[in-house]
């Protein structure tokens, strides 16, 4: 039996504009590197390769909690040791905790000869999100494990639908400000107008059709959010100006990644995505806020086995 | 120039379960027959072939109002005479008024050498719906003109997306009760819970993906409506029992057609659709309510030129 594996666990964009809580996509960059080893005793060890202090108790760790759930299912005297090279900054809004959780379970499953389905891995990994944010959501885990664009039709019972898409360039900017997921959740209105919901589901239907029909214009027209973005964007300085500048630069559209503060934009051409990146940089340079940008593409594979 | 045309204007199902106000489909049966003649004077005449009394003023008629709009665009000394053989019962919930409006404009456009796009025809035909119900909606007109399954991503501006679908059998029952569209609109809650809206858009996304991916199971799983059906179904006696019996008979799913009282069910196989029809008949026979049923398929063509 194989004993060790090294994997890349990528960043993801959840809450794809109108697709709040249901649509996400997987990125090529940034990604974490994780080394996972099979142990011959019932034990989970998680360590940071970067000297980042992690909780001793694996149940309190984003990678550890999912592995404990997996061990419960197995009832065998085995365990896993995990070393995480963290490259996706926690709190950036591109699925840092999901990458740890999803990477851990995909690596462990590989070491076990792929006994579990991707859906089962999502179920395990959701326990990592519960540790990270208090909520067992699958918004980032699903695209991280499945790759590409994913729809969560239903969370209870879990019903995941992988969606094909045409090639797209994704430009992401992470302004160095803090948006707490709990705050981003708290400011949402729990009651909405039916007429606004109808606009939203028209756009969701259009976006899904645009992906499946490889219709870039339809994707662009459907990247509208009448409900969540108007509320959440007030937590992100410069959001409206940045969005307008990116559309001006030729982006199809985009919005807040997850609950922010990162913002993503989709483009048909690489050159456009580069202009979008320049437009993003200018906005935050002018605002005097530090940032990182990524110019990447949709990762159709998800967590990737690098060695072992 | 061709002077006369005879067309078939089919029934349609709007508000496709979770796709309230955005998704519709076109049926092969029932359909109206319309005979339209080009006149050499600026005049619209609409007559019923069945002796049904129609308003003298064409502006007050479902077929006449759209043709008046078309004439405004043309600014030529021409007009149209229309004879309608009505087979789709008004008030049944399968787009009777839309068939008159859509049939009139498609026939007229044919006589004019197809000068107008399908989108423009929808815009004209919406004036017929305004006459019929007071609201310029396109829910039934769009599938009637485009055929197949149609998405209205946005109504202002009008953005229509035709969706492919796998072959489906459609069983429709029209119980002989009256549900006024105005009542069906009035009882809807204008405020809804965000969490319910999220369930709804998961299902809409799933339904669109199911149609485009030819995934019957996904179509079936997505045919759920958490918002409109629970409210509107109370206007239709026997609805819950009928739906349960149809699912039991093997239907993928279905719901209220338009604002009712007709109910439709989708099935993968013709034999199943027949069992569904039997189940429907039993429910309304037991309730002592008269009914008509139709066992038909999706009409991918829409309004059809029969002669001329």
List the helices and strands and how they pair.
The structure is a homodimer of 308-residue chains.
Chain A: E1 4-13, E2 23-39, E3 44-48, H1 64-74, E4 79-85, H2 96-111, H3 118-133, H4 141-146, E5 149-154, E6 159-163, E7 169-175, H5 181-186, E8 191-193, H6 194-212, H7 216-222, H8 229-232, H9 239-248, E9 253-256, E10 263-267, H10 270-287, E11 291-297, E12 304-307
Parallel strand pairs in A: 3-4
Antiparallel strand pairs in A: 1-2, 1-12, 2-4, 2-5, 5-6, 7-10, 7-11, 9-10
- What is the N-to-C succession of helices and strands of chain A? EEEHEHHHEEEHEHHHHEEHEE
According to DSSP, the number of beta strands of chain A is 12
Largest sheet of chain A: 7 strands, mixed
Mean pLDDT across the residues of chain A is 95
Q: What's the CATH first level of the largest domain in chain A? A: Alpha Beta
- Give the N-to-C terminal Cα separation of chain A: 11 Å
CATH fold descriptor of the largest domain in chain A: Ribosomal Protein S5, domain 2
- Any idea what the shape of chain A is? globular
Runs of chain A with pLDDT <50, length 5+? none
Radius of gyration of chain A: 19 Å
Pfam family, one (chains A, B): GHMP_kinases_C
Family (chains A, B): Belongs to the GHMP kinase family. Homoserine kinase subfamily.
Keywords (chains A, B): Amino-acid biosynthesis, ATP-binding, Cytoplasm, Kinase, Nucleotide-binding, Threonine biosynthesis, Transferase
Function (chains A, B): Catalyzes the ATP-dependent phosphorylation of L-homoserine to L-homoserine phosphate.
């Amino acid at each position: 039996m194989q004993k060790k594996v090294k994997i890349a666990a990528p960043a993801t964009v959840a809450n794809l504009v109108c697709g709040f809580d249901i649509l996400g996509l997987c990125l090529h960059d940034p990604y974490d590197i994780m080394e996972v080893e099979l142990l011959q005793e019932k034990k989970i060890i998680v360590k940071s390769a970067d000297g980042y202090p992690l909780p001793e108790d694996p149940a309190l760790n984003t990678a550890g909690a999912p592995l404990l759930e997996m061990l419960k299912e197995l009832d065998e005297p085995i365990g896993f040791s995990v070393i995480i090279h963290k490259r996706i900054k926690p709190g950036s809004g591109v699925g840092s905790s999901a990458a740890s959780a999803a990477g851990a379970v995909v690596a462990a499953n590989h070491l076990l000869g792929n006994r579990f389905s991707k859906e089962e891995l999502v179920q395990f990994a959701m326990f990592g999100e519960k540790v990270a944010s208090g909520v067992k959501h699958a918004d980032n885990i699903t695209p991280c494990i499945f790759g590409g664009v994913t729809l969560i039709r239903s969370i209870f019972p879990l019903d995941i639908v992988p969606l094909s898409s045409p090639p797209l360039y994704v430009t992401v900017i992470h302004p160095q400000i803090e948006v707490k997921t709990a705050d981003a959740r708290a400011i949402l209105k729990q009651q909405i107008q039916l007429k606004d919901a109808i606009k939203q589901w028209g756009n969701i239907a259009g976006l899904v059709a645009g992906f499946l029909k490889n219709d870039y214009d339809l994707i662009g027209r459907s990247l509208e959010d009448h409900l969540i973005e108007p509320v959440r964007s007030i937590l992100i300085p410069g959001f409206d100006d940045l969005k307008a500048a990116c559309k001006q630069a030729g982006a199809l559209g985009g919005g807040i990644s997850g609950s922010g503060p990162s913002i993503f934009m989709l483009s048909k051409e690489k050159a456009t995505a580069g202009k979008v990146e320049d437009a993003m940089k200018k906005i935050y340079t002018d605002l005097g806020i530090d940032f990182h940008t990524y110019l990447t593409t949709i990762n159709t594979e998800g967590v990737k086995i690098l060695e072992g």
